[in-house]
Specification:
Blueprint: E1 5-9, H1 16-25, E2 29-32, H2 33-39, H3 46-55, H4 68-76, H5 79-103, E3 109-112, E4 127-132, H6 135-146, H7 150-159, H8 163-168, E5 172-175, H9 180-200
Parallel strand pairs: 1-3, 1-4, 2-3, 4-5
Helix pairs in contact: 1-9, 6-7
Enzyme class: transferase
Subcellular location: Cytoplasm
Pathway: Cofactor biosynthesis; coenzyme A biosynthesis; CoA from (R)-pantothenate: step 5/5
């Protein structure tokens, strides 16, 4: 088991996936909260059954999968519904994240979570690594990537910690405002450092 955990986070469009993919190419195990969040609501899962019972069949598509858009539309306008959903999903996601962290056997393990700090997941981490980009670039990249409206992206950004709050709580910061090579150079240096820290932990 890797007993040294690096929490990787950053705002939407900051380049978390590019960063974690590169660390994975260096032989580091990645535990991704977004992937786990999808796994806990797969067809046949207790969470999906509970969601269908609570919100009705309109949140299940023809293939028996969760209709994310329908569910998002419901909880976006209803705080009680959102609270119910969070109380169901957060413990299930957390349990699976912790199990995957324990199974990791690379020199250290990276926990990738967009809401790492908002959901207090940093308590399971030895260090917090923030991928940082200026907000204007965040907006531009996300709109291009997801083909989203500016208003929609701004609403997501507003629901996350501000850039300043995130940077204040970071142990390490990688600046992703240039090309991929620049990002990878910074991560290569951090990878060496994390391997050393993990040996001493």
């Amino acid at each position: 088991m890797s007993n040294y955990v690096v929490g990787l986070t950053g705002g939407i469009g900051s380049g978390k996936t590019a960063a974690s993919d590169f660390l994975a190419s260096l032989g580091i195990d990645i535990v991704d909260a977004d992937v786990v969040a999808r796994e806990v609501v797969e067809p046949g899962s207790p969470c999906l059954t509970a969601i269908a019972e609570h919100f009705g069949e309109r949140v299940i598509d023809a293939q028996g999968q969760l209709n994310r858009r329908a569910l998002r539309d419901i909880v976006f306008n209803d705080n009680r519904a959102k609270e119910w959903l969070n109380q169901l999903l957060h413990p299930a996601i957390r349990a699976r994240l912790l199990a995957q962290l324990q199974q990791a056997d690379s020199p250290y393990v990276v926990l990738v979570a967009p809401l790492l700090l908002e959901n207090q997941l940093q308590r399971y981490c030895n260090r917090v690594l923030v991928i940082d980009v200026p907000e204007a670039l965040q907006l531009e990249r996300t709109m291009q990537r997801d083909n989203s409206e500016q208003q929609q992206v701004e609403a997501i950004m507003a629901s996350q910690l501000t850039r300043e709050q995130r940077l204040q709580r970071a142990d390490d910061i990688v600046h992703n405002d240039a090309d991929l090579t620049h990002l990878q150079q910074q991560l290569t240096a951090l990878d060496k450092r994390y391997r050393q820290l993990a040996k001493g932990s």
